[in-house]
Amino acid sequence: MLTDIEIAQSVKARPIQEIAAKLGLAGEDLIPYGHDKAKVEPSAYQDKPRKGKLILVTAINPTPAGEGKTTTSVGLADALSRLGKKTCLALREPSLGPVFGVKGGAAGGGYAQVIPMEDINLHFTGDFHAIGAANNLLAAMLDNHIQQGNALDIDTKNIPWKRCVDMNDRQLRSVIDGLGGRMQGVPREDGFDITVASEVMAVFCLASDLSDLKTRLGRMVVAYTRAGEPVTAHDLKAEGAMAALLKDAIKPNLVQTLEGTPSFIHGGPFANIAHGCNSVIATDAALKLGDYVVTEAGFGADLGAEKFLDIKCRMAGLTPDAVVVVATVRALKHHGGAAKTDLGKEDLGALERGLPNLLRHVNNIKNTYHLPCVVAINAFPTDTPAELELVEKKCREMGANVALSEVWAKGGEGGETLGREVIRLCEEEPRLDEFTYAYEDNTSIQYKLNAIVGRVYGGEKALLTPKAQKQAQRLLELGFGDLPICMAKTQYSFSDDPALLGAPEGFDVTVRDLKVSAGAGFLVALTGDIMTMPGLPKCPAAEKIDVTDDGKIVGLF
């Protein structure tokens, strides 16, 4: 059996101009990065109206058994293309952290991939490097301001802004820098985030254009004065230079699937520590150039979809026409208590115990957000007819159809059943309710936290530590209380305890830290032991990645 990278390398990519032509783009609309990828000039789409149907792909809470959300997204886009729809895919760029860590790449799998798979998973067009450089330029200007006399009276013990690097490196979580004498800087406690957790990444993905990007960069709070007042990037006169570093990166990247479906891949914040969606700019371009747009949000629907709907859609004026919730029989059995070694065996008891996880996600999409929904079962050879029938029966009781997806093995052909149901939802399903958010604008911080915990997670309420309570009060005093909430929470559970699988009830979520991302336009609530700089596992994926003497990358998955 071929590996993902071997499958990707076996397909000859079409010239990117040919892919662009499917969206009505001409050669002058592109900035080519080689033969098979390009950035698209904003002038090619910015004055066009949005016309596309927007399909959000999300999933159950992830397990070691895997769900295949990106693979399903790619295969669905190919299936819609095969069914005669002018389709465009809009995905996030992978972070080098997971590529070299546990998860591996994020370009799909099997015969449902975007290519060039190696480039997309590694340096691609340099967007992440530009974001990291902009983040670290701001950090350098901040410390230089302090070194050169500290005219803004910055409190060196109250600087939330961190440097970043796009790598899992736990050694950098907490550092002391500025050592070596008076001319080497002012010694202080510091730290690093992974690039995808940087607020610059969030700003990059929520900005509507270059001008909006610069404005948002200037609003970012990087430090506080000794009097407790916020210091912004604008106060440091940094946003212009940062925008200069990002002026090319902000243009969306165009690539293709194995079957030649146009694909925008742009931006990539994590969903467990950020808002987990690709850029508004890429989604907007896709909606203006395609008739059907397939996009995804990171991790389970409690994280990625919640933030896509409550943050991205709210800010960008988006309304999905349909939502796909991806699950596997294997993963549901894991949520039901089955051991990883037994997931290939029929176990209707474990499956029934695990199904509430899927059903809660479906209920949220249908009854919290009032959106049409279909469940996609990512097929495995070990799935039995009885198991598939049980999943279908329970989902139909919730008013959601189920479609078997075989895109990993068959590409777009294996997604046609799912594609037809998506088309039906978009074009035929009556809209009995209007899209609503999990919480309204201009409500209190506590209300919004409780709404997410209660209406999305199925818990009781959010508990703020004394530290978080003080932060909430201060954020309210500073005028940030009306902003939406970006929950930083484990992806493995509806709760803040990764061991609580399935659909737990009666739990509270403890918020230990609240901070403002004023440029992005939301408050970040840190829960549990979530970290903004991951570490590498005992046996990182990097140990298996290599390059041959002729420059061919191997071991990437």
Structural features, described:
This protein has 557 residues and is an alpha/beta fold. Helix content is 34%, strand content 18%. Strand 17 (373-378), helix 14 (385-397) and strand 18 form a beta-alpha-beta unit. It starts with a helix and ends with a strand.
Describe the secondary structure blueprint for this structure:
Layout: H1 4-10, H2 16-21, E1 30-32, E2 38-40, E3 53-59, H3 69-82, E4 87-91, H4 96-100, E5 108-109, E6 112-115, H5 117-121, H6 127-147, E7 163-165, E8 175-177, E9 188-190, E10 192-194, H7 199-206, H8 210-219, E11 221-224, E12 230-232, H9 239-246, E13 253-257, E14 262-265, H10 280-289, E15 292-296, H11 301-316, E16 322-327, H12 329-335, H13 348-368, E17 373-378, H14 385-397, E18 401-405, H15 407-410, H16 416-427, H17 445-457, E19 462-464, H18 466-477, E20 485-488, E21 509-517, E22 522-527, E23 546-547, E24 553-554
Parallel strand pairs: 3-15, 3-16, 4-14, 4-15, 7-10, 16-17, 17-18, 19-21, 20-22
Antiparallel strand pairs: 1-2, 2-13, 5-6, 6-13, 8-9, 11-12, 13-14, 21-22, 23-24
How would you characterize the largest beta sheet? 12 strands, mixed
Which of globular, elongated, flat, extended, rod-shaped describes the shape? globular
Structural class: alpha/beta
**CA distance, first residue to last residue:** 14 Å
Portion in helices: 25-40%
> What oligomeric state best describes the polypeptide chains here?
single chain
**Rg from C-alpha positions?**
23 Å
Mean pLDDT: 95
Q: How many beta-strand elements?
A: 24
What are the low-pLDDT stretches, counting only 5+ consecutive residues below 50? none
